[in-house]
Design brief:
six-stranded parallel sheet; 15% strand; binds ligand 26W
């Protein structure tokens, strides 16, 4: 155990002068004490993990600073082409341990803290998650910028600095309760405010046309209510390579004049209220994933991000090249993370024309050669549309430009398909109807040179379904970029024991070249290696139990011998947590009937947040908790089956969960999950997938082989073929097990004192119109789960499969994904950083 002492007798160096190379343990101790005692003013006798964590973070941040400056300078000196990743979400999670890993100082710092009587794990876990995202899309952005830095690509991440991130979830009486996540309350040591790079963002007012001295028509946007965008920069270190890139997040602040006018007029209250309106823009992250809800504030957020980021890029450009945009497109590339920032297409046109005097054609060529769009979903309810009237009121000049883009586009389509008014109606940016709407996906496709999906099947469905007309017109724009996850956070850092075993066995090059994991394959046949693999997995399972221990009584039934069966992701009908629960109820029924002998014990762990306004998703959470309650409190079954709802699932929770999972549940209705990335994290950590042929599951199975994957369910084609004559009642009638399950549900067995509580859920899966066809996949899911059990009983076999899953996860590194983005879309040259003083 670390001893508890804080020695302050050694001389402390000045904090600004970290030695630039090979920082020694003693240096860390000295710097740490300097910050803890002198800067934070804490008493060394009173250890607070939070403030100790802050002090250590400051030490690490200082260590990054020289690299950050050098990276900046290298990019500037080389005048290189740059990439800009625009995203409304960056789900970063915690920073400290990742920064230490990427700097290569983890061992030294751990030792230094140990010598001070501090367990580093405590400091690490006292850091708040930066939860500035909903789920997959936001976490993907975070993994991407890690890989960009590791690949030494000059890419800046642009996003919003929400004051409140993704809500905190608590479960009360089985129901989700949302609490605001004021993650900035105690400050954020990782960010640096850069007032000098602020920009002014316009809203409201009106658009005017006038003729200048040369007789040229000019457009202005006047009488606006402006808001200031202030950037906060976070360093993004590459893996031990001296590169530190930037994540720049914008905060909305009221402009001074805007208040002054009102103050002078004596309208104090109005002035303060207006200030709040302005600052509301970056107050809160919208917690909807996959459900567009058309709120004005959301459109304000989107425009705020797009305008601030583009003004920033253009200010940098004009600083170097004045008003000459001839080479702008050669030197810049914007990747739009879904349609959320796609108003950037119209905004770039506006800035180039109205502020920098370019003509339409010139501006349009620049726009459509610099913008690239990634689609993340096929669900129609997630496709963004904005009422024309709203856009005219909020962004009048942008609406003019969108109409004009559409007019040019319509004439191109008319030339391609002469006389086909139906195709015009379908493809137009403007959807006609009782109210006109702007289809953001159409704007994004028309204004971009690249349109990509996030897994093979997803891209194929975009081309053949959702965007088939655009694909016919511009096949060259479409491409696939299968998602990935960063192996630094999702293996090296979150599963240090497994990482050490891997490194001891095949060397450490896997950390930046994940395809090296393939070298583990032969070791699957090595009994002593398997034994070590197994021991590490069991200890991760124990840690998971310990982590959850004080939270839930049901934990006492848990044994590391049980299969840890994990489904963690947002709660959504298409992801079918309900199907998982049907299987749980089936197992419960079997156990109750006395079918206990050769059943393998199983612990079903389900975690995830429901959008606060998504009624059905919230009901699913309640159902999971009620079923868990009945099963966990029944001594006749709870030694064989435990069900746990993991409260407040987030990035830092997944870091604990993925190392302890045996079975990865990826059970969405085929054709609905664009890719999935949790599936990749779990595979990388040796969990075996039970899954449908959906999203990246298909590619996971391709990589690992059918014999190491539990496949079930209808294919996307079969699902589509069934629509219109799907008959779940007939399926229930023919399946006795399913009848028992439905009977338990319908008899109120899980809602004894809450009559009818689950009626709408039950009716939804019994409906012939159930879009997710849960009942259709029941039998094949149950059979696949039986194969899971049979496989688990043979420990050697299971461990072999586990090793092979990890060994074949190389494709799912974001280093591979980003290399593809770069080779095929961005075309940036890697920039090794020059460290003059090193
Ligand atoms: C407009 C509201 C809204 C908000 C978020 C609509 C849609 C979204 C996203 C599409 C939600 C999301 O995170 N999508 C996920 O993106 C991941 C990264 O590509 C994929 O792995 C998941 O399959 C996809 O659901």
């Amino acid at each position: 155990m670390p001893t508890n002492q804080f020695l302050i007798s050694q001389p402390t160096p000045t904090i600004t002068q970290l030695p630039k190379q090979g920082v020694k343990k003693q240096d860390f101790i000295n710097y740490f004490k300097q910050y803890y005692v002198h800067l934070l003013g804490r008493d060394e006798g009173h250890q607070s993990p939070f403030y100790a964590g802050e002090a250590l973070s400051m030490v690490i941040r200082d260590h990054l600073m020289e690299h950050w400056k050098a990276t900046h300078k290298t990019y500037k000196n080389n005048d290189c082409r740059r990439g800009y990743y625009l995203s409304m979400e960056f789900l970063m999670g915690r920073t400290l341990s990742n920064a230490m890993l990427n700097l290569g100082v983890t061992d030294n710092v751990t030792q230094a803290m140990y010598d001070l009587g501090i367990a580093i794990e405590e400091l690490i876990s006292s850091e708040e998650d930066a939860g500035l995202g909903n789920g997959g899309l936001g976490r993907l952005a975070a993994c991407f910028i890690d890989s960009c830095a590791t690949l030494q690509l000059p890419v800046i991440g642009y996003g919003l600095r929400y004051e409140y991130g993704m809500f905190t979830q608590t479960i009360v009486n089985g129901e989700q309760i949302e609490k605001p996540d004021h993650w900035l309350r105690y400050g954020n040591v990782w960010e640096i405010e850069r007032l000098e790079y602020s920009h002014r963002i316009k809203f409201g007012g009106r658009s005017t046309v006038w003729t200048d001295a040369n007789g040229k028509q000019q457009f202005s946007w006047v009488d606006t209510h402006d808001v200031l965008a202030i950037p906060f920069d976070t360093p993004i270190p590459g893996y031990q390579n001296g590169t530190v890139n930037t994540l720049r997040l914008w905060k909305a602040v009221a402009t001074e004049e805007f208040n002054l006018d009102e103050f002078n007029a004596g309208d104090y209250a109005e002035a303060v209220a207006a200030k709040i309106t302005a600052e509301n823009i970056t107050m809160v992250l919208y917690p909807n994933d996959a459900n567009e809800n058309g709120k004005t504030l959301r459109l304000q957020q989107q425009y705020f991000l797009a305008s601030a980021s583009l003004q920033d890029v253009i200010a940098h450009w004009t600083g170097l090249h004045g008003n000459d945009f001839t080479h702008f497109a050669e030197k810049s590339c914007f990747q739009l993370n879904d349609t959320h920032p796609s108003i950037a297409i119209a905004e770039l046109m506006r800035l180039l024309m109205d502020l920098h005097g370019l003509g339409w054609d010139e501006a349009w060529i620049i726009t459509k050669t610099t913008m690239a769009y990634t689609n993340h979903t096929l669900l129609p309810e997630a496709l963004e549309k904005w009422p024309v009237t709203l856009m005219q009121r909020l962004l009048p000049r942008l609406m003019d430009i969108i109409f004009e883009i559409n007019a040019h586009f319509i004439s191109e389509v008319s030339a391609y398909w002469p006389g086909d008014s139906e195709v015009l109606r379908k493809m137009s940016i403007i959807e006609e109807g009782h109210q006109q709407q702007v289809r953001m996906a159409h704007l994004a496709i028309i204004g971009s040179f690249s349109v990509n999906g996030v897994a093979k099947l997803h891209t194929q469905l975009l081309q053949q379904g959702l965007f088939s007309d655009f694909y016919a017109l511009w096949p060259h724009k479409f491409n696939n970029k299968t998602n990935g996850v960063t192996p630094r956070r999702w293996l090296a850092s979150c599963n240090p024991k497994l990482a050490s075993l891997i490194t001891e066995t095949i060397g450490d090059s896997w950390i930046t070249d994940l395809s090296q994991l393939k070298k583990l394959e032969p070791f699957a046949d090595d009994a002593s290696f398997r034994e070590r693999w197994y021991a590490i997995k069991q200890s991760a399972k124990q840690s998971l139990i310990d982590f959850k221990k004080n939270k839930n009584d049901a934990i006492s039934h848990l044994s590391v011998e049980a299969i840890f069966d994990v489904q963690v992701k947002r709660i959504h009908e298409y992801k079918r947590q309900f199907l998982n629960i049907l299987h749980v109820i089936h197992l419960y029924n079997c156990l109750k009937k006395g079918d206990t002998n050769d059943r393998v014990a199983r612990c079903v762990l389900i975690g995830g947040k429901a959008a606060p306004g998504y009624r059905m998703a919230k009901k699913i959470i309640k159902l999971i908790n009620n079923v868990a309650q009945v099963i966990n409190s029944d001594p006749t079954v709870n030694h064989k089956l435990t069900v746990l709802f993991l409260e407040d699932y987030r990035v830092s929770a997944m870091e604990k969960i993925c190392s302890g999972a045996d079975l990865s549940e990826q059970i969405s209705t085929a054709g609905k999950e664009a890719s999935g990335t949790g599936n990749m994290k779990l595979m990388m950590n040796g969990a075996i997938t039970i899954g449908t042929l959906d999203g990246a599951n298909i590619e996971i199975r391709e990589e690992v082989g059918d014999e190491n994957f539990f496949l079930f369910g209808l294919t996307e084609e079969q699902i589509e073929a069934k629509r219109g004559h799907y008959n779940p009642i007939a399926i229930i009638d023919q399946d006795e097990d399913l009848q028992h399950v439905m009977h338990l549900l319908e008899s109120g067995h899980f809602n004894q004192f809450e009559p009818s509580l689950f009626d709408d859920l039950i009716n939804s899966i019994k409906s012939p119109h159930d879009p997710w066809m849960t009942i259709a996949d029941f039998r094949s899911y149950i059979d696949a789960q039986q194969r899971v059990e049979d496989a688990y009983r043979n420990k050697d076999h299971w461990v072999k499969m586990s090793i092979l899953n990890c060994a074949n996860s190389g494709k799912f590194s974001t280093d591979r994904t980003i290399s593809e983005y770069n080779r095929e879309i961005w075309k940036l040259t890697p920039q090794p950083v020059v460290h003059e003083s090193l």
